[in-house]
Amino acid sequence: MREMEQIIILPYRKVLQIAWQGMRIRLLKTFLVTSCIALALAFLTFIMCSNGMVEQLGERASEQLQQRLAREGLLEQLLSTEQRSQTAWMLGIALMISFAGIVNAMLISVTERFREIGTMKCLGGLDSFIVKLYLAESLFQGTVGTTIGIVVGVVLAYVEGLNRFGSEAFQLLPIVTLVQILVISFVAGVVLTVLGALYPAWSAAKMEPVDAMRSEV
Amino acid sequence: MASDHIISARDVKRRYMMGEEVVWALAGVDLDVHRGEYLSIMGPSGSGKSTLFNMIGGLDRPTEGTVIMDGHDVRKMDLRQIAYLRCHKVGFIFQTFNLIQVMTAEQNVMLPMTFAGVSDEEASRRAREILERVGLGKRYDHRPGQLSGGQQQRVAIARSMANDPDIILADEPTGNLDLKTGEEIINMLAMFRDEFGKTIISATHDHKMLAASDRVVYLVDGKITEIKQRHELKIEQGGIADKKAETKLSGRQ
Ligand SMILES: Nc1ncnc2c1ncn2[C@@H]1O[C@H](COP(=O)(O)OP(=O)(O)O)[C@@H](O)[C@H]1O
Ligand SMILES: [Mg+2]
Questions:
Q1: How many structural domains compose chain A?
Q2: Of A164, A176, B13, B44, which residue is 20 to 30 A from B73 by alpha carbon distance?
């Protein structure tokens, strides 16, 4: 029996073109998902930055600021153990919200397209094509959403800082800590988005096309 | 192996588990499909038409038995060979059209060609040519949401023809359409058989959609109960519309 031929592997340029076209036409949904990612990341970065500032109050705040805060009873409150455990809680919640929000948004956005994935497989699309398609899409949404979210979160944290600590807010957070926060947030946002998309996309891709097309959401 | 059989199914079985219960959606089907024929798979809902459709088209693998397509055993193919088969050898048409919603009619028809490695210019030229053939020459830039059911199904037909496959597989292609639009779709499939020698395999539960068939396979509970040739069919088609036509004819004589 003669060997059956194999389908070609699509070049990346083609995959990107199809991904981009889909996101453009699905503009509202792309926007909603990206906003969801941005929101989660804004919350996370905001909490991390503003916690970072408070933690440094004892060491980096000037005498006057410390005295003023002490007078208002704020310093004691901010550095109290209850406040600290509350801060840890907030951070935990921020992490959970980011995780659940992003993963949920991606899960919905992919599962509602299971039929499309099945159809593409019927037309000769390979599993790897499906995975690359959603990788491209989620990388884009993850990068844009995370970047916007981080900028918003940092700006809001400094606005709050200015409000509470005056212009000293800018020197409270050491540069190293700020960079750490930015890197951690960025990696967390992008990785969560990509994994949130790839997991359902991959499970749909490896199904037989009929099964993917049958699963209605 | 006789080369006029484009598909040979031998003792094909497909089992589903419904919890503890075993359902044999196909309970041993033998079927040879001739090159260039219009074969209808007829049976009530739940008789296993879609399951058979999936087996023949390489959309699912049989639990037991073999499907030979064009000399190749579908069960022995790897993923890239199956994808090649779906892309080049078979064109699929579904009851629910299954067009890609974010793509225009033209892009939908181009997609299988893209998967086949055809350049954009060539794919676009060919897509418009096929859309012209199915009467949608002016609608190439419309997305599925902007088209009627009948028009969407014609885009799906055009898409199934994209890579010039030998076989067109249609699962209840008229199921979501009114009678007149359904007949147009059936006639279009028959046209592709007549003009290009395509093998058409179409599942239906509607007697009115058998008119173009060369052969009808009757499926009940996952088994073929009867196979009828075209001339045997004529007698069977005792629909009211046919009777009227007959009386008219005989009245004129
Ligand atoms: N994915 C599935 N899981 C369980 N049972 C199924 C599945 N697909 C089909 N069946 C069963 O197999 C039988 C045949 O189904 P199907 O091929 O869809 O029939 P038809 O297309 O003729 O309506 C039915 O009893 C159906 O319930
Ligand atoms: Mg069916």
A1: 1
A2: B44
The pLDDT assigned to B233 comes to: 81
Number of H helices, E strands in chain B: 8, 10
pLDDT tens by residue, A111-159: 999 999 999 999 999 999 999 999 999 999 999 999 999 999 999 999 9
- Which of B84, B86, B99 lies nearest to residue A6, judging by beta carbons? B84
pLDDT of residue A107: 92
A11 domain residue, yes or no: no
Q: Do B59 and A4 touch (CB under 8 A)?
A: no
Whose structure tokens read 């009808």?
Answer: B216
* Chain A CB within 8 Å of residue B233 CB: no
Closest CA relative to residue A149, chosen from A36, A49, A29, A52: A36
Per-residue pLDDT for B28 more than 70?
yes
Of B50, B54, B206, B218, the residue with max ligand 1 atoms within 8 A of its CB, to mutate for a pocket test, comes to: B50
Contact residues, A window 111-170, toward B, CB-based 8 Å cutoff: 115-116, 118-127, 129
Give the domain range for residue B87.
Answer: 5-252
Which range of residues forms the domain containing residue A69? 22-214
Does residue A56 belong to any structural domain of this protein? yes
**Chain A CB contacts of B145 below 8 Å:** none
Complex ipTM, two decimals?
0.89
pLDDT band at B231 (very low <50, low <70, confident <90, very high): confident
Q: Is the pLDDT of residue B253 over 70?
A: no
CATH number assigned to the domain comprising residue B154: 3.40.50.300
Please check whether residue A6 lies inside any domain of the structure: no
A2 in a domain, yes or no?
A: no
Average pLDDT for residues A193-216, to the nearest whole number? 91
Burial (Cβ within 10 Å: 0-12, 13-18, ≥19) of residue B31: buried
The ligand whose atoms approach the alpha carbon of B60 most closely is: 1
Question: Does residue A120 or residue A217 have the better pLDDT?
Answer: A120
Nearest 5°: the CA angle A137, A141, A144 is 140
B51 close to ligand 1 (CB < 6 Angstrom): yes
Backbone φ/ψ region at B56: left (φ over 0), alpha (ψ -120 to 50), beta: alpha
Q: Is pLDDT above 70 for B236?
A: no
